[in-house]
Design goal:
Layout lengths: L5 E3 L3 E15 L4 H5 L5 E14 L4 E2 L7 H8 L20 E3 L7 E3 L2
Antiparallel strand pairs: 1-4, 1-6, 2-3, 2-5
Length: 110
């Protein structure tokens, strides 16, 4: 889709915020409608400030790129179209918002 993704080549420590799911709510309908299979829901998350130990092989998506808005729509858990809200990412604990640009070596992912 044109989003630049980088992969960390080495272990690193980054300042960021982790996510913790606190609930789900129906989107554009009643709680009864959300109980039906396939009904749209919106994730509710709590941001947790953290010093993150990131493993080599982790992925980094910078928001300093032309399609940053598309990356945010896909990766921010509370976005209705996000990967987490739609089950592509199973657990928001595996995602984090990085607050400082990484200084570890990274490779562009094709």
């Amino acid at each position: 889709l044109g989003i630049e993704v980088q992969q960390l080549d080495e272990l690193g420590e980054l300042r960021g915020e982790g996510y913790r799911e606190t609930g789900r709510e129906p989107v554009g309908g009643s709680a009864d409608a959300a109980a039906n299979a396939g009904a749209a829901t919106r994730l509710k998350v709590q941001m947790l400030p953290a010093l993150l130990d990131v493993a080599a092989g982790s992925y980094y998506v910078s928001l300093e790129q032309p399609f940053a808005n598309l990356a945010v729509a896909a990766l921010e858990p509370e976005a209705p179209s996000s990967f987490a809200a739609n089950g592509v990412i199973g657990d928001v604990a595996s995602e984090a918002r990085i607050l400082t640009r990484p200084v570890v070596h990274m490779t562009a992912v094709p």
